[in-house]
Amino acid sequence: MPKVLIDQESCSGSGNCMALCSEVFEVVNGVSQVVEKYRDDNLTEGTVPEEVECVHKAEEKCPFNAILVK
Ligand code: SF4
């Protein structure tokens, strides 16, 4: 299953990720984090099912390249 990583140091809080993929991303206090449902050990890491394809669009559209999906 794809792993999602958010680099909060690079995140501007623009909210693009949440707009494109609210199932996985939420912006709290001006910074993006993984929603509790898919979160791993901390706010910036998650594992999502293959069928949640919007993570790829969010990665592509983050203006600061703060999202990595692997
Ligand atoms: S799109 Fe990128 S910069 Fe904008 S809130 Fe999401 S992770 Fe942060």
Percent strand equals: 25-35%
What shape does the CA trace take? globular
Bound molecules: iron/sulfur cluster
CATH architectural type:
2-Layer Sandwich
- Mean pLDDT equals 98
Number of helices: 2
Please outline the major beta sheet.
3 strands, antiparallel
The number of distinct structural domains comes to: 1
Distance between the termini: 9 Å
Q: Low-confidence segments, ≥5 residues, pLDDT <50?
A: none
Rg (CA only): 10 Å
- The CATH first-level class comes to Alpha Beta
| Sequence of secondary-structure elements | EHEEEHE
Structural class: alpha+beta
- What percentage of residues falls in helices of 4 or more residues? 10-25%
CATH-assigned fold name: Alpha-Beta Plaits
Describe the strand arrangement of the main beta sheet, using strand numbers. Answer: 4-1-5
Number of strands: 5
Q: Can you describe this structure?
A:
- This protein starts with a strand and ends with a strand.
- The model has no long low-confidence stretch (mean pLDDT about 100).
- It has helices spanning about 15-20, 55-60; strands spanning about 5, 25-30, 30-35, 45, 65-70.
- It has a 3-stranded antiparallel β-sheet, covered by helices on one side. A two-stranded antiparallel ribbon has the order 2-3.
- The radius of gyration is 10 Å and the shape is globular.
- The protein has one domain (about 5-70): Alpha-Beta Plaits (2-Layer Sandwich).
- The chain has about 70 residues and is of the alpha+beta class.
- It contains 2 helices and 5 strands, in the order βαβββαβ.
- The structure holds iron/sulfur cluster.
- Iron/sulfur cluster binds near residues 6, 12, 14, 17 and 32.
